[in-house]
Amino acid sequence: MINLWNRIFGPNICPENPRSIFIGLIGGVGDLVLAAPSVVALKEKYPSAKIHFGVGDGIFYDAIRGHPSVDSFETGLSYNVWKPRQRKKIERQKLKDHDWVLLLDNPDRDWWKAGKHLMEIYEEKCGVTLTRRRPLISLDPEDSVAAEKFLQEQGVKEDDFLIVLSPEARSKKDMKEWPADRFNALIKKIRAFRDVKIVNFASKDNPHTFNDTIDAGGFPLRPSADIIRRADLYIGLDNGLTHIAAGFDVKMVAIHIGYPVVCCGPLSPFAEVVSGEPFASPENISVEEVFEKVQGYL
Q1: Cβ–Cβ contacts within 10 Å for residue 171, how many?
Q2: End-of-domain residue from the set 77, 93, 126
Q3: Last residue of a domain, which of 126, 160, 191?
Q4: Could you report the per-residue pLDDT of 191-238, keeping only the tens digit for each?
Q5: What sign for the dihedral angle of Cα 293, 296, 297, 298?
Q6: Same domain for 114 and 168?
Q7: Does residue 158 sit in the same domain as residue 285?
Q8: Is residue 218 within 8 Å of residue 154, measured between CB atoms?
Q9: Which residues constitute the domain of residue 13?
């Protein structure tokens, strides 16, 4: 009884040999695939510990399910990450059943001012050192089958030059999204330079049309990731799919608008990043400078 009281109301620190670790993260898809390598390292550090992962529903669970180092998942986790009292309440609830609780969501909106990449932040919170700093999503054979079926139905062949386009941000759209007319101008330049197939991953409710592309709006996250894995080139914004792409050895051009690149840019040796000053207008990035990077991969 005393040990339980100390665990719940004492400082939330990792014991020497934790038997059970609860990790909570209700951030976006990008946050989840960036945190995933630290979970691998945590399991390697404490191989006897059971790791339980709390996450939101839908695409957020899809981004982390199948992770080889997670023993069980709690879906539908939800709380206001900016409220210290809510964070402490979740910690105390989970400490009733676990030896250590790690809530990985950043506790305030100024997280970026420290100048650290999100992956580094997760690494420090988990108390691990990564040997490979690349995002991670764990796909399964069913994802590959669904991706192959979609591409075949859309007439994409093995010898086609396949480009995946991700022209949409899930949140902070005004800050992160490049104008749709510039994407369309970019598509026109690409097609004038080379014969390609372009799969477009804008959502179904996106009000814009992206000309001469295969519309994959509403396609499930995990088969979408497998299509990205197969692509010859990926072009995207600061969003979850871009971080997924950075985990694969796919050539990519990231149009990074909003937060500083050092804090959340794609962690891939295959990435070319086009960006301006942090939080500058998306209009500041021209079609010509993006096409210059794309052309180098065509």
Answers
A1: 8
A2: 126
A3: 126
A4: 999 999 999 999 999 999 999 999 999 999 999 999 999 999 999 999
A5: positive
A6: no
A7: yes
A8: no
A9: 2-126
CB neighbour list of residue 192: distance below 8 Å, 6 or more residues apart:
none
The confidence band for 7, taking pLDDT boundaries of 50, 70 and 90, is low
- Is residue 37 over pLDDT 80? yes
Domain with residue 255: its CATH number is 3.40.50.2000
> Same domain for 235 and 197?
yes
- Per-residue pLDDT of 79-100, as tens digits, reads 888 898 999 999 999 999 999 9
- Tracing tokens 């670790």 back to the chain, one arrives at 21
pTM: 0.94
**Secondary structure of residue 90 in the 3-state scheme:** helix
Per the domain annotation, does 135 fall within a domain?
no
Same domain, 267 and 235: yes
Residue 14 pLDDT greater than 80, yes or no: no
pLDDT digits (tens, 9 = 90+) for 105-152: 999 999 999 999 999 999 999 999 999 999 999 999 999 999 999 999
* CB distance 290 to 165 below 8 Å: no
Domain with residue 27: its CATH number is: 3.40.50
Residue 152, C-beta contacts closer than 8 angstroms, at least 6 positions apart:
none
Domain count across the chain: 2
Answer whether 29's CB lies under 8 Å from 243's CB: yes
Q: 166: closest CA among 91, 70, 231?
A: 231
- CA 292 to CA 294: how far, in whole Å? 6
The alpha helices in 24-172, defined as continuous H runs, are 29-45, 59-64, 84-95, 118-126, 141-153
Does 226 share its domain with 149?
Answer: yes
- What is the residue whose two structure tokens read 């390292």? 41
